[in-house]
Amino acid sequence: MDNQDNNLYETASQPDTATDAYTFLEFNTQGESDFDYPEFRSPVAWPTPSDSLGATSSAVDPTSSDHPNSGTQGVVEGLVASIGGLNFEETGDDDGYEFGKGDFTEHACRYCGVSNPACVVRCNVPSCRKWFCNSRGNTSGSHIVNHLVRAKHKEVCLHKDSPLGETILECYNCGCRNVFLLGFISAKTESVVVLLCREPCLNVNALKDMNWDLSQWCPLIDDRCFLQWLIPSEQEQLRARQISAQQINKVEELWKTNPDATLEDLEKPGVDDEPQPVALKYEDAYQYQNVFAPLIKLEADYDKMMKESQSKDNVTIRWDIGLNKKRVAYFVFPKEDNELRLVPGDELRLRYSGDAAHPAWQSVGHVIKLTAQEEVALELRASQGVPVDVNHGFSVDFVWKSTSFDRMQGAMKTLQWMKPVSVGRYIYHHLLGHEVENQTVRNALPRRFGAPGLPELNASQV
Q1: Mean pLDDT of the chain
Q2: 196: which strand partners?
Q3: 396 near 350, Cβ under 8 Å?
């Protein structure tokens, strides 16, 4: 019995095809063509998505193929080729909202990109002419109101494709274009609405006698936003680019030096560099000077830019001669249009471009007085060649002086090099923010303070 068991295991481990029934079946699974799948071995056989629809015409016909699975292969190739032939194109609906990219709409909002003609208005100042929408976005006021306030502009114009057409918003009675003074008013019997300014036309008695209901006057700008018929739809606000108040401040400052700048320019290196912040305490005068010197330079550049931008053209001149035999030019320089105020002693440059009878001329003078009629009296330094027979077509420019800023820079350099010797040890440490003991000056003060020819000081003046 043991011999039979041994023979059995020996047959299983070493089969004898001639005498034993326990043999393994031998099939050639790697050599028959019925089980051959060449498409899984060769990457060339796989179709790519870039194949065109014409690949279906060259697909293998399952009836003429020697492989049983070639029909399935042809179907797969046809489907892949069909999908690859589909063209997915951009509709281009968002072109107006990608500011600075692609075909940007000219009348799109310079902040967010909204370009609906019924929702945008143009700043009508000749040096600006930018378009803004009436949506708020992430700010408390609308974009057009934000721009008007920060740029100190007051005139706007509607789009030509808007319901009211290309219209400049102005007062019906006096023609005032200050949108912050304008409001709507309707007739009592007719369905007519006009724009009327708050001062002075709303209080004019002549208008009260007309068929206007003055009690129904409402401002054009309410809650930092223009009226409802200018507000964009909710869908346009959601699709618009989101901009923060900080970005608006930066781009408005950038427009003062580069009117064609975009929001993308804020990302350029060096544009958004902030100066070193002011500290409460400083180690020494070197650190103090390194912090304040760049700030004084920035203030000087800003003051120079603001003064040089206050030029006025087409100024009418009234000529006169002063007691010192110098020429004096009188002209009106509107205060409401200037951030800077003229004071006696300011230097101005008076220019004339010339004509057929007079050559080009310019001269520098200083303001000697300001009349009650808002006239500026400018005394010229040179009286030779003054076109006194011409009264129109002059230009006035500010002459910027760096005297005050040069003195500040010089004082800091003196403090840096001489240190306590220049101002005294107590003042020196106080400027740097160091803790020092208060010094008490013990002197016998007089009971009465006065000077010859002057009244005595009272108790509050001592």
Answers
A1: 77
A2: 183
A3: yes
**Contact (CB, 8 A) for 398 and 346:** yes
Shortest CA distance to 312 belongs to which of 336, 289, 280, 276? Answer: 336
Angle subtended at Cα 41 by Cα 36 and Cα 44, rounded to the nearest 5 degrees:
120
Alpha-carbon gap, residue 223 to 258, rounded angstroms = 31
**CA 454 to the chain's CA centroid:** 57
Which stretches within 258-314 are classed as H helix? 285-308
pLDDT tens digit string along 73-82? Answer: 766 677 667 6
Residue pair 415/422 in contact (Cβ under 8 Å)? The answer is yes
What is the set of domains in the chain, with CATH numbers?
A: 2-84 (no CATH), 96-169+220-257 (no CATH), 310-400 (2.40.30.230)
What pLDDT is recorded for position 11? 45
User: How many angstroms separate the first and last alpha carbons of the chain?
Assistant: 138
pLDDT tens-digit series, residues 397-429: 989 989 999 999 999 999 888 777 788 888 888
Q: Which residue carries 């796989």 as its tokens?
A: 46
Q: What is the pLDDT of residue 275?
A: 83
Strand runs labelled E in 234-374: 312-315, 318-321, 327-332, 347-352, 361-370
- Strand order across the beta sheet in which 193-197 lies: 193-197, 182-186, 218-219
Q: How far apart are CA 415 and CA 418, in angstroms?
A: 5
What is the reported pLDDT for 287?
92
Reported pTM: 0.58
* 204-212: Cβ within 8 A, 24+ apart: 204/173, 207/173, 211/187, 212/185, 212/186, 212/187, 212/188
Question: Residue holding tokens 């005294």?
Answer: 424
For the cut 90, the answer to whether the pLDDT of residue 364 exceeds it is yes
pLDDT of residue 188: 66
Task: Tell me the one-letter amino acid at 382.
Answer: A
